[in-house]
Amino acid sequence: MAKDFFNEDQRKLIVDAIKQAELDTSGEIRVHLDKHCDEDVLDRAAHWFEKLQMHKTEQRNGVLFYLAYEDHKFAVLGDAGINQKVPEDFWNSIKNLMVTEFKEGRFAEGLANGIIESGKQLKKHFPYQTDDVNELSDDISFGDK
């Protein structure tokens, strides 16, 4: 099952990265893990983006890190508010950073590094506000496939 892929320390590393990144930005970051992805990875990520209600943030600044570990597929998906402001290659630069770790089998570290870098980059467009509310859970979500 997907929820068994990371051990407790790895889950903590990822959740701590989300919390740290969200100290820099009002953006909302989530991680979703599937064992398999039988369709286009961006379509699957978009499915989970909607299912996790990530499109309901006030500034439309949610980011989903989606990983189907058995099929070696992943995507980083940002909401409309982000994509209107960031450069075209924004998500590819984050993904390239993560691929290096993934190729070495360090999935938790790759996710954590991508999440931290996203927070730093999003700070330019969506800086943290003192009255910021954590609109989405920082916990990792898991699929059944």
In a nutshell, what does this entry contain?
The chain is α/β, with parallel strands linked by helices.
- Name of the level-1 CATH class: Alpha Beta
CATH topology term: Diaminopimelate Epimerase, Chain A, domain 1
How many domains make up the coordinates?
A: 1
Number of strands: 4
3D shape:
globular
Compute the number of helices. 5
Protein name: TPM domain-containing protein
Domain TPM: 4-115
Describe this protein's structure:
The protein is 41% helix and 15% strand. The model has no long low-confidence stretch (mean pLDDT 89). It has helices at 8-21, 41-51, 80-83, 90-103, 107-122; strands at 28-34, 62-68, 73-78, 141-142. It has a single domain (7-129), classed as Roll (Diaminopimelate Epimerase, Chain A, domain 1). It has 145 residues and is an alpha/beta fold. The chain is built from five helices and four strands. Strands 3-2-1-4 form a four-stranded mixed β-sheet, with helices on both faces.
Give the helices and strands, then pairings:
Layout: H1 8-21, E1 28-34, H2 41-51, E2 62-68, E3 73-78, H3 80-83, H4 90-103, H5 107-122, E4 141-142
Parallel strand pairs: 1-2, 1-4
Antiparallel strand pairs: 2-3
Helix pairs in contact: 1-5, 4-5
Protein name: TPM domain-containing protein
Organism: Carboxylicivirga marina
Domain TPM: 4-115
